Amino acid sequence: MSRPVLSIERKIAMPQHAKSHSLGIVLASLLATAAFAGAAQAQTPASGGVAGGVRPQAVAAGWNVLLKVENPATGWKQRSVRFGLMPDAQVGYDRHDLPSMTPFSAPYLYIAFPHPEWGAKAGTYATDFRQPQSAFGATATSWKFDLHASPASGVVYLGWEGDPAVLQRSTVTDTQTGLVYKAADPALGARGIAVTVTAETRSFIWTFQP
């Protein structure tokens, strides 16, 4: 069974004075790898698409999805952001939720989960996990995440990897355009959604249907 791959290659093209900060990003990625080891045991090999019209498969109690973003023109990329369900996670902040190591200055390209409602733990996060009961007991469960890019120009690709059974039950909504994408749509290809960057922050919503 394959283990989830959490790349430590986060090319944000930061200035020289911010390189020490990038070490924190790498460290956070390494910590996340250990946190997701248990959830990976319940997952099938990563996939970016499933043939349309296929009946949704059974979903494991614990799962995680990797979010990734890439700018082909500059080579900047990030693939260290994850979310999903873990048996010992909480609806709000818990030990599986790792802070996002945001850059000190431009240029940058990264994804983060905003949580201003978490009181003393309010901020942006690189991971966001919840209890399985909180998802399966509801009509749908959603995660909001923001795409941050500076300079705010060009085209970037927003993609994901995860259990095909999870992707079959998930959609991604671009809150700026209102477009809704099926996470398992093979037409998106390996890169995912082509996003024309027009602002430094753009929000998306991932919705999982139990």
Could you describe the 3D structure shown?
By secondary structure, this protein is an alpha+beta fold. The chain has one domain. It is built from 4 helices and 11 strands; from the N terminus they run ααβββββαββαββββ. The strands form 2 sheets. The chain has a 6-stranded antiparallel beta sheet with strand order 4-3-6-11-8-9. Strands 5-2-1-7-10 form a 5-stranded mixed beta sheet. Strand 3 and strand 4 (123-125) form a beta hairpin.
Q: Largest sheet, if any? A: 6 strands, antiparallel
- What is the total number of structural domains? 1
Which radius of gyration do the C-alpha atoms yield?
A: 16 Å
Low-confidence residue ranges: 1-54
Mean pLDDT, nearest integer?
Answer: 78
Quick one: overall form? globular
Helix content: 10-25%
Strand order of the largest sheet: 4-3-6-11-8-9
The number of E-state strands comes to 11
Given helix and strand content, the structural type is: alpha+beta
Order of helices and strands: HHEEEEEHEEHEEEE
Q: How many distinct helices? A: 4
Strand content bin:
25-35%
Straight-line distance between termini: 24 Å
